[in-house]
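Researcher: Batch entry, complex prediction.
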Amino acid sequence: KQEVTQIPAALSVPEGENLVLNCSFTDSAIYNLQWFRQDPGKGLTSLLLIQSSQREQTSGRLNASLDKSSGRSTLYIAASQPGDSATYLCAVMDSSYKLIFGSGTRLLVRP
Amino acid sequence: KAGVTQTPRYLIKTRGQQVTLSCSPISGHRSVSWYQQTPGQGLQFLFEYFSETQRNKGNFPGRFSGRQFSNSRSEMNVSTLELGDSALYLCASSLAGDRSYNEQFFGPGTRLTVL
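Model: Structure tokens for the complex:
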């Protein structure tokens, strides 16, 4: 059964810092991995999708990497801003085409 | 292009009642998936509809059902509501051409409270 874990559960950093969020999954048989952000009480915003054959994807200040063989992904946020404060979720599409989510990392960027 | 819309945004029901939630996908998207989000269990997959057919299903009891219409709009129904059904219900749409590249776009959710 696919399980997705995100570490740390919460993170507080001063504005301007570069930071890394971690995601691990137990079964390497995935089709893709997607990173989302969720603001309190809101839906999910798609940030990046990495196909299983890819190693990384970039969008603006965000860079996500995927190491399928070790079951790991990282989301790198450069020059963090208070507007980046949110919960970040990673999800893998498993072999049965279901999206399995981690429990998220709650990020606070202090001005 | 308009995003995924969900109605209503908030609902309060009592135990034993039933509820219907609605989701309109992004124009051109043919797949609609439903998720339940609770503080204790996180985000869990309910089911996916494509071309008016349920294509995938999570591990939820039969009280949870759905359907999809010819215009790709989807509804989710929960019968005999229980307190534990209180949650944020999220709908996501995708193009669904190649499911291995299924970037999912989420709506704002419907917050259901069962009293």
